[in-house]
Specification:
The chain has nine helices and ten strands. By secondary structure, it is an alpha/beta fold.
Length: 291
């Protein structure tokens, strides 16, 4: 039995993100993500200007008049959400935790998918696969995706992005649009991303918090790595220490962006202190222009 407060929170996210899908992203999703090809719709009589390669010679021979095949874009897509629920996602200092923001992003993308009659699935991962929800349609399925994104209790703390991408390839036979939602505090995922992108349309959504780019001046503090448990003391009253931390964080951010560009992976930078609608809208517009 799901607690009442959990159901209320799921419902709030559904209402908020549904409104966003309708008001902000209406039309963009459809024009950005293309179907799997073209499918036959009907035959009609040949008209001047029609491509002769589309003539249906069997129908033409039977009727004695030229007919052409008419095709339509095959619209149905498979959207896969690869959600990082490792220990580092349970951090946030502004509006919400990174994990809560990731759950909202899953809701927006899943609702956008079913609104366009596409299927959507979820792979939640840490060091291993925590849960797999096969691609399906329907609001009930989306509500389960939101629930698992918010409240799934992971068995492990670490992050294994290559493992999640390999699992995607094993379980999803048809080409999909796959969003990898993570803070990308992981290693050795460049080549697996590049390999997966040859089969799927991979989009990286990195989530960061402003405190991951700068330290406050609060004296000596203990900092612990949420995934490994390692800790160290930092003297945040030192301007040199704070500057060094900021420089290193910025360097990591730019290196990650460079990595995505080098393998032609689309990247959406999501921050806990900036409304994610801005980043998603910018991404949709970019994909529309490119299409």
């Amino acid at each position: 039995m799901i607690p009442k407060e959990v159901l209320q929170k799921i419902r709030r996210i559904q209402i908020t993100t549904s409104r966003m899908v309708t008001d902000v992203f209406a039309g963009h999703y459809h024009s950005v993500f293309k179907g799997q090809g073209m499918e036959f719709e009907e035959v009609r009589e040949y008209q001047p200007g029609d491509d002769i390669r589309s003539i249906d010679w069997n129908v033409t021979a039977r009727t004695g008049h030229p007919f052409v095949k008419k095709f339509m874009e095959e619209r149905e897509l498979t959207i896969m959400l690869l959600l990082d629920i490792s220990a580092s996602s349970h951090f946030g200092t502004v509006n919400k935790l990174k994990s809560q923001l990731a759950a909202e992003l899953c809701s927006v993308l899943a609702l956008s998918a079913i609104k366009n009659n596409d299927r959507v699935g979820l792979i939640a991962f840490t060091e291993g696969i925590e849960i797999f929800l096969p691609p399906r349609k329907g609001l009930r399925h989306v509500l389960r995706i939101i629930r698992e994104s918010l409240y799934l209790k992971p068995r492990a703390k670490g992050t294994n992005i290559p493992g999640a991408l390999e699992y995607l390839s094993r379980t999803t036979s048809r080409r999909s649009v796959a969003f990898v939602i993570s803070d990308f505090y992981a290693r050795n995922y460049k080549r697996p991303l590049s390999i997966a992108d040859k089969r799927h349309d991979i989009i990286a959504m990195s989530i960061t918090d402003p405190r991951e780019f700068s330290l406050p001046d609060v004296g000596i503090v203990t900092v612990e790595d949420a995934e490994t448990g390692r800790s160290l003391f930092i003297d945040t009253s030192s301007q040199e220490v704070r500057n060094g931390y900021a420089d290193e964080a910025l360097k990591m951010f730019h290196e990650r962006e460079k990595l995505f560009r080098s393998i032609n992976i689309d990247h959406i930078d999501i921050r806990t202190d900036i409304p994610y609608t801005q980043a998603l809208y910018k991404f949709f517009r970019m994909r529309e222009r490119r299409a």
